[in-house]
């Protein structure tokens, strides 16, 4: 059983790891030379999950940010040709965000940069440790309470 001090140490380690992941990922993004911020990268990755171009409000909800933040991200990505605003075919007041061919190419490069960053971070772990970590992270991401995770 964990103690409050152990939980505090674990929380600190998780925060340090998160910062390290962001730093390494940012470095790999800069090395690929796309000029895309981590937030813009996240928006591009989110766009591919839609079967048709989403509205900005849909993106804001999915990214869990305010709509104004999406507008700023889309402005930057549109200026670099990664996305374009397109009118909704059924409601001319609605604007949808569409990934361009340049955006698709950028996504491929971003995936490679993310894989390289992940490899840097996971390098000290064996294959077995990586599998264990994947299971633990899934439990944390899914928010499974400890008793349910043990099957109690």
Summarize this structure as a short list of keywords or feature phrases:
single chain, 152 residues, mainly alpha, 7 helices, 2 strands, 68% helix, 7% strand, globular
Structure in words:
This protein has 152 residues and is mainly alpha-helical. 68% of the residues lie in helices and 7% in strands. It is built from seven helices and two strands, in the order ααααββααα. The chain has helices spanning 4-32, 38-47, 56-63, 67-79, 101-122, 127-142, 146-150, and strands spanning 83-87, 95-99. A two-stranded antiparallel sheet has the order 1-2.
What is the chain-wise order of helices and strands?
Answer: HHHHEEHHH
- Strand arrangement within the widest β-sheet reads 1-2
Strand count, sense and barrel status of the largest sheet are:
2 strands, antiparallel
Number of strands: 2
Shape: globular
Q: Helical content, roughly?
A: 55-70%
Strand residue content: 5-15%
Mean pLDDT: 88
Low-confidence stretches: none
End-to-end span in angstroms?
Answer: 15 Å
Distinct helical segment count: 7
Structural class determined from secondary elements: mainly alpha
Rg over CA atoms, rounded to whole Å, is 19 Å
Question: Assembly state here?
Answer: single chain
Give a quick precis of the structure.
The protein is mainly α. The protein has helices at residues 4-32, 38-47, 56-63, 67-79, 101-122, 127-142, 146-150, and strands at 83-87, 95-99. Helices cover 68% and strands 7% of the residues.
